[in-house]
Structure formats: C-alpha cells, structure tokens
Design brief:
By secondary structure, the protein is an alpha+beta fold. The protein has a domain of 170 residues: 2-Layer Sandwich (Alpha-Beta Plaits). Strands 1, 2, 7 and 8 form a four-stranded mixed beta sheet that branches. Strands 4-5-3-6 form a four-stranded antiparallel beta sheet, sandwiched between helices. Strands 9, 10, 15 and 16 form a four-stranded antiparallel beta sheet that branches. The chain is globular and about 55 Å long.
C-alpha cells in the first residue's frame, strides 16, 4: 500500500547537510497533530551498567527501533537512539502495529536479558495541549541514512509524562499474552571500537535560555567543539582501521537471542561463519566489499540533536579538559548544563537491510555512554533549580 502524505511526513522534509544548520528554524517542520511519540527506556539502566550489561542495554534500545521499522515497511519513521532508550514518531495508521511490536520487545528484554523495558505511546495532541511542540528536521548523513532532529520541548515533555506516576497509566504499554516482533536487520557483529585518539566521550549539552538565545548558545557550542576537536571526520570515534568484526561464535549471543530467539551452538556458528565470510570479503575487496567499512562510517548516528546536543566523539584527554573548562564556564553563567562520560571504546549496534544500501549504525561509548553522561546532566539541572529551568526549544 502506498504511504499517504501524512505517513510520508519525515520523508518529504528537505534534508540539511551539516549539524550546524540545526540552529536555523526554517529547517524544522511541525509534526502532524494526530501522530504519536513512542518512547522506550531501560528501567534502572544504571544498575545494569554496574553489572556490566551496557552492551545488552544498547542492543535492546536498537532492537526496539528495528521492530517498529519492520512493522511499518515503506514508511520513513523519524527516530533518535539514546543509548538506553529511543524516541520514535509514528503516524496514527500504525499505532496498533506499534503497540504489538513494543510489547514483544518488552517481553524479549525481560525473558532474554532480565531487563525491564519501559515503553509508552503519547499522542502529540496531549503534548500540544500542554503548550509544547515537536518540530522535526532531517539531517542527511549519507545516501543510506538521514538522522531525525527534534526540537520544541515536546519529546522531553513526553518522557516526563511517561515517568510521572500520576499520569503514566494513560500512556504505558502493557499487555498479557505472547507477542512477536520482527527483528530482521538487527546486527551486533563488531568488536568495541578503540578510540583513534585515546578517548571516546559521550557528550550531552542542553541550553538554559529561550528562543534565539538558545540557538545562539548551540551555535557557539558547536563552533567550540569544532575548534577543539576538529571537523566531524577528525573527531569521528569510528575509523576503518579500528573496525574489527568478531570471530568467537559465543560473542554472537546477543544477536542470536534477539534476531533468531535461538542461542544454540548451530545458530552461533552460523552467525560466526557468515561474519567470517564478511571479514574475508572486506580484506580482499571481494565484490567491492572493501568499501563497506567506509559506508558504515558514513551511516553512523554519533552527532544529533533532540532538544539537546548528543555526540559521541573521539579526542585526547587535553581536548576533553579544554572542552569541559569551556562548558563549565558557560554553566556558571547560566547558559547551559552538560554531561560527559569518558571511555576508550565505542559500541556499534546496527540495523542493516541492504549492505550496500539502507542501513544505520548506532554508536555509543562503552561502560555507560549516554546513560552516565545523562546522570551528570540531570545532577546539574537539579542544582540549577529553581533559579534556572531548562528551555527545551530553539525558538
């Protein structure tokens, strides 16, 4: 069935080419008021991180996106991967499918990983009625992937609704019985990627001003990051030289469990054999496979915006200290709050529908990544109250 113009909302948004363009309001389009915000996040993700389960947490967040995309083929859904959760915008025509998909992903997380996935559907109309908006831009990362950009405060408000004990019952996804999801395309075959410059940091930055002042703050921050770390290619945490496919059959347990619901020896060795063939094809450039690592790098989601800057970047300790000093100075002025988590590796979790076509590769820092960066940011927000309240929109 051909998607309607309402369903093609994201697809029809003209793409921008550079992250610096996110501060220009003309690139944003109001999400249709009959759409929904789908939210997922791992409950008590900090405990999971402490127990060494952050790879599991990342994988479940990516799997939730995969399952929703697979439920609605032909519709380009705008989404943001957040490390321990995800935000996806949905047209009303797919809500029944989305509900079933999210229930199935919850069950998979609980039964296979012992983790609780909170999931909810919030009508955009409820967000608008509360005085917030959701505006969407489309950032073209490659011919195979465009990253959604959100502003207006609406997605952050949706998260508040889902976690508010007095309101959450209206929005939480719950259900009895057995549900099934299609996780086709989900892959988890790369080793942790060593930082090319020593450190891989998870970076969250949220302006504390309104309207044009907010846009100016983000513009200045992006310029400062570029001045310290260099351009996107220079600060990229993933390099072709450091990408290494796994080889140990037992290292494919996560993919086998999520994608195939089968962790038997036969399935693990089948995935290992498939990956070994990929390693050989890349190494000897068989049928142009030598170009695949660069294609992957072009389709990563390491720099994005959803009412805050989210980045996974690589650099040196000196660069990180320089950036923190700048951000702390701006925080003391009341301009922004931030969170930084330092690691030495990046985690890559993939959705691949065509190895030489449609694909996206979710990137986070190891050992807690975005989740631990968010912990610092939230502490700063709490410290700033009531003098300052976060302003979650560009204009």
């Amino acid at each position: 069935m051909t998607p309607t113009n309402n369903e093609r909302f994201f697809e029809l948004i003209p793409a921008i080419a550079h992250l610096t363009e996110i501060t220009s309001t003309e690139h944003y389009h109001e999400v249709p008021d009959d759409w929904y915000v789908a939210l997922t996040d791992i409950v008590n993700s900090t405990t999971a991180i402490e127990n060494g389960k952050y790879r599991d947490v990342n994988s479940i967040a990516a799997a939730a996106i995969t399952a929703l995309i697979n439920r609605v083929p032909g519709i380009d859904l705008p989404f943001i991967f957040g490390g321990d959760g995800a935000t996806i915008l949905l047209p009303p025509s797919v809500i029944h499918e989305a509900w079933n998909s999210m229930l199935a992903t919850q069950q998979m997380a609980r039964e296979s990983f012992g983790l609780e996935l909170r999931a909810g559907l919030i009508p955009v109309r409820d967000i608008l009625d509360a005085g917030y908006t959701i505006r969407v831009a489309r950032l073209k990362m490659s011919n195979n992937f465009s990253q959604a950009i959100f502003t207006g405060g609406g997605t952050a408000y949706a998260e508040k609704l889902l976690k508010d004990p007095t309101k959450t019952d209206k929005y939480l996804i719950r259900g009895a019985g057995k549900y099934e999801a299609d996780f086709s395309g989900f892959e988890c075959r790369w080793n942790a990627v060593r930082s090319p410059h020593g450190e891989t940091i998870s970076l969250l930055i949220q302006a504390q001003e309104t309207g044009g002042q907010s846009a100016q703050i983000y513009q200045q921050v992006l310029e400062k990051i570029e001045a310290i770390y260099g351009d996107r290619a220079r600060r990229n945490p993933i390099t072709a030289q450091n990408l290494r496919l796994r080889w140990n059959p037992f290292s494919f347990w996560i993919e086998a469990r999520i994608k195939h619901n089968d962790t038997g020896i036969r399935q693990l060795f089948k995935l290992a054999w498939s990956t070994l063939k990929g390693r050989i094809a890349i190494a000897f450039n068989i049928q142009n496979w030598g170009s695949y690592p660069q294609m992957l790098i072009e389709a990563i989601d390491n720099e994005k915006f959803d009412d805050m800057i989210r980045m996974i970047i690589s650099g040196t300790e000196q660069q990180r200290l320089q950036l923190r000093a700048y951000l702390e100075e701006q925080r003391q002025r009341g301009s922004l709050v931030y969170g930084i988590h330092v690691a030495h590796d990046a985690l890559v979790t993939c959705i691949v529908y065509d190895y030489f076509g449609r694909q996206v590769h979710f990137v986070d820092a190891s050992d807690g990544g975005y989740a631990l960066a968010a912990k610092e940011l939230k502490a700063q927000l709490k410290e700033a109250e009531p003098q300052l309240q976060p302003q979650l929109q560009l204009a």
